[in-house]
Design brief:
The chain is an all-alpha fold. The chain has a domain of 39 residues. The protein has 3 helices and no strands. The longest helix has 20 residues. 0% of the residues are buried.
Length: 56
């Protein structure tokens, strides 16, 4: 327990992100925290493809 606390205190802070890194990594972190977004997107694209197929 003490070794883990000492290791985290001695670790260097993470570098600041630039604009592109912030935009990309924020999206990745958001979707990693909510894995259902991928499934919802897949279902939405499947429905949209079906609707467009009927219209065209």
């Amino acid at each position: 327990m003490i070794a883990a606390r000492t290791t985290t205190q001695a670790a260097a802070p993470a570098p600041r992100r630039d604009l592109v890194g912030k935009l990309l990594l924020t999206g990745i972190e958001y979707s990693d925290a909510r894995p259902w977004i991928g499934a919802a997107g897949l279902i939405a694209m499947y429905v949209l493809a079906g609707v467009l197929e009927q219209l065209l």
